[in-house]
Amino acid sequence: MKPFRDTWLIFQRQTLLILRNPVWLIIGVLQPLYFLLLFGPLLKDALPVSNAAEAYRIFVPGLLVMLAMFGAMFTGFGLIAELRAGVIERSRVTPISRIALMLGRALRDVATLLVQALLITLLAIPFGLTVHIGNLLLAFLMLGLIGVMMSAASNALALKLKTEDALAPFMNGLAQPLLLLSGILLPLTGWLATVAKFNPFAWAVDASRALFAGNAGDPKVWQSLLILGVLTVAALMWAGRSFARGVR
What we know:
By secondary structure, this protein is mainly α. It has helices at about 1-20, 25-40, 45, 50-75, 75-85, 85-90, 100-125, 135-160, 165-180, 190-195, 200-210, 220-245. The longest helix has 29 residues, at about 135-160. The chain is elongated and about 60 Å long. The mean pLDDT is about 80.
């Protein structure tokens, strides 16, 4: 039970830090909101749909996956700041579980992500978006897996690189191809669709769109959950070893 208690304590502390300075939470909502308000109205003419509601059922799921990707991808910068300030080093003298140091942060990122995703979904309703609550919860589960995976990977990279000068170009160089080859903004076709089969986020986008369209039985849904589940476990194991080595 101790790892669970320690994880909860770390989660509480990290959440309190966000509530004291919610600027990143606000910024995380604003970027997808810009896409929703300024890019969304163009989709009816750009996509083979008959009305705006269908366009938003295609666009909003991709927008939520983008929020999950970028909301957790850069959390390692905060960890580097804590390393520099000696927060992680001081954790060495406490009996707290090493894995809890990582899980608490990851759960903080997931909680923040789900709040932002709910806000974006609610704001899209006046534009004609409709989705079954059960399908929405399943889509949020998928977003949670992405959040944990990206948060764990980002923190593991931060512990390895230990400087923003190295982490920033690495993450930016990784983010752009993942974004463009995921079909987040528009569905992919041709050779891009073939290459995107190797991108787990493309699977997540397709599965989310199937859920928002009411097709919970689409094979892409369970396939995406399986892929994301395996990658999340791998990222957690990598980050757990990195935290154990980094603070031992």
